[in-house]
Design brief:
- This protein is 43% helix and 15% strand.
- The chain has a 7-stranded parallel beta sheet, with helices on both faces.
- Helix 1 (13-24) packs across helix 9 (219-230).
- The chain has one domain (4-244): Rossmann fold (3-Layer(aba) Sandwich), CATH 3.40.50.720.
- It starts with a strand and ends in a 7-residue tail after the last strand.
- The chain has helices spanning 13-24, 36-43, 60-73, 103-130, 144-148, 155-175, 193-196, 204-208, 219-230; strands spanning 4-8, 28-33, 51-54, 77-82, 137-141, 181-187, 241-244.
- It is globular, with a radius of gyration of 17 Å.
- The protein is α/β, with parallel strands linked by helices.
- 47% of the residues are buried.
- The chain contains 9 helices and 7 strands, in the order E-H-E-H-E-H-E-H-E-H-H-E-H-H-H-E.
């Protein structure tokens, strides 16, 4: 039976690359994003049966509806990849200080990055409680910025990604009896539209001097780690954070 992967944030960046990578690996992929047009482009041309789903993951009702649609049309979700995320900034290269931050931006960031991850994770656990799936997986996205307390992200972004580190651990404990593993990936600086919303290309050379591997990461670097965590071979890994950051943060 074809395994089903549900990927949030599938319209762009790492999420879009993950849609293709998981489809190429033989998964039936449901790509979800607030923009249906974006995810339709992500699944266009891929071999096999895939879905493009419009959903606001910060909305409890829409998340429940998303899972119902995916499981009705493709089958039970075996792998949930919580890849949706936003970063609110005043402009490229401008990092808002805590003092200048607006409460509305804080709330919006947490609504998508943290609440959205929680709602999707909770729905996955509810569905797999009712109908277990072998080698079921949840893969969250945190950030090296949350581990380091820095880079170019706002306080809201860094704190929202820090919450995902803790959420991953408690979810891993509660999901373990289901045979469901829960892990997260903490990307470093990755070439995505999100990165370019805070860091212009002309800053790359100077920034790469801080990275032992001396390059900006690729979405492929993240999807490779996600494919491993989704595999049966990763069955004894849960509650972990996989650092994919070129060595900028070594634990």
């Amino acid at each position: 039976m074809t395994r089903v992967a549900l990927i949030t944030g599938g319209a762009s960046g790492i999420g879009r690359r993950a849609v293709k990578a998981f489809a190429d690996a033989g998964y039936a992929v449901a790509a979800a994003d607030i923009s249906r047009g974006g995810v339709a482009q992500s699944v266009d041309g891929l071999a096999g049966k895939h879905l493009a789903c419009a959903a606001d993951i910060s909305d409890e009702t829409q998340v429940a509806s998303l899972f119902e649609t995916v499981e009705r049309d493709l089958g039970p979700v075996a792998v949930l990849l919580n890849f949706a995320g936003i970063m609110v900034t005043p402009g490229v290269g401008q990092r808002p200080s805590i003092i200048s931050s607006e409460l509305a931006d804080w709330e919006r960031t947490f609504a998508v990055n943290t609440r959205g991850t929680f709602l999707c994770l909770r729905e996955m656990m509810r569905h797999r409680t009712r109908k277990p799936v072998a080698y079921s997986r949840i893969i969250n996205i945190s950030s090296s910025a949350a581990q380091l307390g820095g880079h170019n992200g706002s306080a809201a972004y860094i704190a929202s990604k820090g919450a995902i580190l803790s959420l991953t651990k408690i979810a891993a404990r509660e999901a373990a009896p289901l045979g469901l593993t829960v892990n997260c990936i903490a990307p470093g600086v990755i070439e995505t539209p999100l990165l370019r919303s805070v860091m212009p290309p002309e800053a790359d050379e100077a920034y790469c001097k801080n990275i032992p591997l001396a390059r900006i990461g690729s979405p492929d670097d993240i999807t490779a780690a996600a494919l491993f965590l989704a595999s049966p071979q990763a069955g004894y890994i849960t509650g972990s954070c996989i650092d994919v950051n070129g060595g900028i943060r070594m634990q």
